Amino acid sequence: MTDLHTARLRLHAIDAAEGKRIAARRAEAEDAWADDFPFDGDVIGVTAFLRTSATHGEQRPFGHYRITRAADGKAIGGIGFKGQPRDGCVEVGYGLAPSARGHGYAAEALGALLDVAADHGLSRVVADTTGDNVASRRTLERAGFRHIDTNGELYLYEAVLIPQALR
Prior knowledge:
Elements: E1 4-5, E2 9-13, H1 16-24, H2 40-56, E3 64-69, E4 75-81, E5 89-96, H3 105-119, E6 124-130, H4 134-142, E7 146-151, E8 154-160
C-alpha cells in the first residue's frame, strides 16, 4: 500500500510491528515522533487496529494510518478506518498529539481517507464524537461531514461520497 499524501501530511498505513511500538510508546531508531506522540488516543486506536488485524488479518487499505507532518517528518497522530466496509459504508476515527492540534491537520487527513473510501466504491463514511468535543465536531464539518443524529453523549456524522466516475 502506497502512503497517502496531502499538501502538508503523509499518511502511512502501519503494520503490526509499528502498531506494537506505538501501543507500547517505544520508538525505535527509524521512528520520528513528535515529543507528545503517541498520546492516549493513539494507543487506543492502534490497539483496536492490532486486535482487529489479529482476528481478521490484513486490513489495508481500511486499516490505521500514522499521520506525519511533511515539514519536519514527525509523527503527530493517527487516523483510520474502524473495520472493513459494510453495505457501502465505513467508520473512521482520528486523533492528533496536543502539539499538532489547531492547524487543520485532522480535517486534511480525513479528506485523504474520504478519497480512499470513494476510490473503493463506498457511498458513505461515518464518524462520531462527544457533544462537548467542539473541536472534533468542527473538524468533521470542515472535512465535509454533516451532523445526522445524537445518541446520548455521541454526535453522529456522515459524509456522502461522490462516486469516482463523477469526480
